[in-house]
Design the sequence.
C-alpha cells in the first residue's frame, strides 16, 4: 500500500447477506422518505391567519381599506371571521385560510376594516 493513498472502503460482498440487505434497505427507505418529504412540502399551501377585532371606527384616510361585509361571499374566511367577531362577547375572533384563497379575495393590504350595520371590524392577516 502506498503511504500517500487513502484507505479503500471494502465492498459489500464481505458483509453477510442479511446485514447487506439491511444496510441497503435503510439507505433505500431514507431516499424514499426524502423524496416524499420534498413532494409534500411543494404540494402544501401556506396558511394565512385572520385576526378580527371590533374597532371604534376606521382610522381617518383609510377609505380605500374599508369594505362592506356584503362584498364577501358566503364561504369567505374574511366573512366568517368578521361575523364571528360581531357575535362574540370578547369582540374578537380568528380564522385560517390558504394563501391562494386569501389572494382570491383581492384584498390589497394585510390590514383592513370591514363595516356591517354601523359596526367596524379591524382584520389583520398574517402569513403562517
Sequence:
Amino acid at each position: 500500500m502506498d503511504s500517500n493513498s487513502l484507505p479503500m472502503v471494502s465492498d459489500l460482498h464481505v458483509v453477510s447477506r442479511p446485514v447487506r440487505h439491511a444496510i441497503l434497505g435503510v439507505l433505500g427507505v431514507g431516499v424514499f422518505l426524502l423524496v416524499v418529504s420534498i413532494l409534500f412540502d411543494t404540494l402544501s399551501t401556506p396558511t394565512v391567519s385572520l385576526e378580527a377585532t371590533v374597532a371604534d371606527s376606521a382610522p381617518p384616510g383609510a377609505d380605500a381599506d374599508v369594505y362592506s361585509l356584503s362584498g364577501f361571499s358566503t364561504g369567505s374566511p374574511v366573512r366568517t371571521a368578521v361575523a364571528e367577531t360581531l357575535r362574540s362577547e370578547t369582540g374578537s375572533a380568528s380564522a385560517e385560510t390558504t394563501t391562494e384563497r386569501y389572494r382570491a379575495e383581492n384584498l390589497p393590504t394585510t390590514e383592513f376594516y370591514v363595516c356591517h350595520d354601523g359596526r367596524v371590524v379591524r382584520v389583520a392577516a398574517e402569513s403562517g
